[in-house]
Design a protein that fits this description.
This protein folds into two domains: 3-30 and 186-217; 43-170, 3-Layer(aba) Sandwich (Rossmann fold), CATH 3.40.50. The chain has seven helices and seven strands. The protein has helices spanning 3-30, 59-73, 93-103, 120-134, 148-157, 176-190, 192-217; strands spanning 43-46, 51-52, 56-57, 80-83, 111-114, 138-142, 162-165. Helix 5 links the parallel strand 6 and strand 7. The two termini are 15 Å apart.
């Protein structure tokens, strides 16, 4: 087998592995649009999402806020960390979260603010600093069902060890599959080595089979 043919085999195998990985993640994430049972935690964490013009929460952010308020009133935790900086529209996502939480009956003294993050990785790092300062060990992580998997991985990388899946569900916007697909791609980028190893394994199997077949034909 020529070097060119070998390279083509490796590239094709990697592409096939990536497609399979994306398909698996998409289906897996899409099936997670349901609520989970959440154990008691030291605090509830809301991850920010888009703010619409006029300071109104997007459907995604509204669902996250409602889920956090619900868990608070259930007694899951008596503190809520609101997170998220300023996106395309002011004010900061955390400010909008606080406003709507207080309208839902959450006390001002029970809300802790993180106002500068612009990504999930930044949120994980900054919220870890807040939790260390406040003495919080366990968190109930509130984010969209399709975002929970990657968010949990990033929060573990930031040093959290006790993370309860407190996902919220969505059913009000038409482009849900787009966001699930976007999150599947983000997982592929974050965990690139998983599908890369799969692709290399496939290519080695193909090359091994071709070598054995050529020897058998001689």
């Amino acid at each position: 087998m020529t070097i060119r043919a070998t390279v083509k085999t490796f590239v094709a195998s990697l592409c096939a592995a990536l497609i399979l990985y994306l398909a698996y993640q998409f289906v897996s994430l899409r099936l997670q649009n349901n609520l989970t049972s959440v154990p008691p935690a030291d605090c509830i964490v809301i991850l920010g999402a888009a703010v619409w013009p006029g300071g109104q929460p997007s459907f995604v952010l509204r669902d996250r806020i409602e889920r956090a308020a619900e868990l608070y009133h259930q007694g899951i935790a008596d503190k809520i960390i609101c997170s998220g900086g300023v996106g395309h529209n002011p004010p900061a996502e955390a400010e909008v979260e606080k406003q709507f939480l207080m309208k839902a009956g959450v006390l001002d003294k029970d809300i802790i603010m993180e106002l500068t993050s612009t990504s999930t990785a930044e949120q994980a790092k900054l919220i870890k600093e807040i939790c260390d300062r406040e003495g919080f060990k366990s968190i109930a992580l509130v984010t969209s069902f399709y975002h929970e998997k990657r968010a949990t991985q990033l929060f573990r990388a930031a040093g959290f060890t006790e993370i309860a899946d407190a996902r919220c569900t969505h059913g009000r916007f038409e482009d849900l599959n787009f966001w699930v697909g976007r999150e599947a791609l983000a997982l592929a980028l974050l965990n690139w080595w998983q599908w890369a190893v799969m692709g290399l394994s496939i290519s080695l199997l193909i090359l091994g089979y071709q070598i054995v077949r050529r020897r058998a034909d001689k």
